[in-house]
Amino acid sequence: MNICSRIFLNCGRSCRRFASKDVKTMPKFSESKAYYGFDKFGTQNKYINEKFKPTYYDSRKYQERKLLSIVSSITVVVVYLAYLREGNDLDEVFSTPQHVLSSNIERKMIKTKIEQAIARGEDTKLLEAELAYFDVKEEALKAKFAK
Fold first, then answer.
1. Any residues with CB less than 8 A from the CB of 141 and at least 6 apart, and which?
2. Is a pLDDT exceeding 90 seen at residue 147?
3. Nearest-5° angle of CA 112, CA 114, CA 117?
4. What is the C-alpha to C-alpha distance for residues 147 and 139, in angstroms, rounded to an integer?
5. 59-95: per-residue pLDDT in tens?
6. Burial degree of 134 (CB within 10 A; 0-12, 13-18, 19+)
7. Residue-wise pLDDT tens digits, 102-141
8. 3-state SS of the chain: helix, strand, coil percent to 5?
9. What is the DSSP letter of 83?
10. Is 58 exposed, middle or buried (0-12, 13-18, 19+ CB in 10 A)?
11. pLDDT of 25-64, one tens digit each?
12. 71/63 Cα distance (integer angstroms)
């Protein structure tokens, strides 16, 4: 019986100790640090009640100058490319029809194959026939695109 009374008294003491502690109330969520996100120091709070103060970059004058700057830059580039630039070799390449450019490349390839075959001592009759056929093909392309 003595042991039971000791256990009972000890339980009573621990219950009284637990009940006598001050219970902290939880703050409202809107007042907690979690409400303000990752910023734990409240630097975001300074913008909450602040009124909008327009700057020069928000003004209509700045927007008009920016638009004028873009339009004038594009105009300068177009004028340079259209009128002021001198002609060069690339202009000739770009103005040449495609079939002429491709035929020149193909002709050079066939001539290179003929030179390599001569250097190896092989027969070049087939390559020369291919070159002759290519000349006929080139004349047909010229007639087709001349119309």
1. 99, 103
2. no
3. 110
4. 13
5. 899 999 999 999 999 999 999 988 888 877 777 778 8
6. middle
7. 888 888 999 999 999 999 999 989 999 999 998 888 888 8
8. 75, 0, 25
9. I
10. exposed
11. 777 777 766 666 555 555 555 555 666 777 888 889 999 9
12. 12
C-alpha closest to that of 142 among 98, 85, 108, 86: 98
What tokens does 26 get?
């939880």
User: What residues have CB less than 8 Å from 142, skipping those under 6 apart?
Assistant: 99
The token duo for 108 is: 């050079």
Which residues 6+ apart lie within 8 Å of 145 measured at CB? 97, 99
Q: Are 93 and 106 in contact (CB under 8 A)?
A: no
Instruction: Tokens for 42, please give them.
Output: 């409240």
In this prediction, residues 5-10 reach a mean pLDDT of 64
Which pTM was predicted? 0.37
